[in-house]
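Exercise 7.
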Amino acid sequence: MQLIPAIDLLGDFAVRLEQGDYDRVLFRQPLDEFLTRVVATQPDLIHVVDLQGARDGALRTEIIARCAKLAGSIPLQVSGGIRSLDAATSVLQAGAQRVILGTALWSEPGALVTYVQALGDRLVAALDVRDGVLAVRGWLSSTELGVDDAVEQCRQAGVTRLHVTAIARDGTMSGPDLELYSRVCASGLKVVAAGGVRDDHDLDDLEAVGCEAAVMGVGFLARLGITI
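Solution. The predicted structure, written as tokens, is:
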């Protein structure tokens, strides 16, 4: 079971939000300072989300390149503001090993297949779930697409890995939504879980329902000795 620390970006700061609410900032620290602390723990992978890019729909490849330089040999998976194939390619060229796409995949019919064909297993499909349906555009908008339908579309399109976030659990330290992850893992696709993951017990529970990895945000702050 892989533990992936999360670094969420607003401006030049690493932050943690509660339930994706930009007005509820739980933690803020200069990016270079925080990323250096994360890198010192030697994780296998780091999860970087440009919240500013997700909110504004504007890709910031320069800050991704900065993260990649600071991370050194540790690979990055990156999301936020990646709304086109050119943008996804730019993020990979800036140093990311994987790109996580949500909004762009559901923007128009056929988009999902196009991205899969172009990016292969470097694409991770984001299913950001609120009240049983997908949220997009930095979680500021909801769609009418249900989780099960989205998973099936991903499976048919050839997606290999899903990044599934239970938005209501994000930043709350309330534990993961095991029922949600169990449903998604039944598809046979690789699943990275996010939202409410607190500790090793939660990691064990997620592994038991079939997840390959989990992203930890607030819980990872606690591992670093940071209280919020």
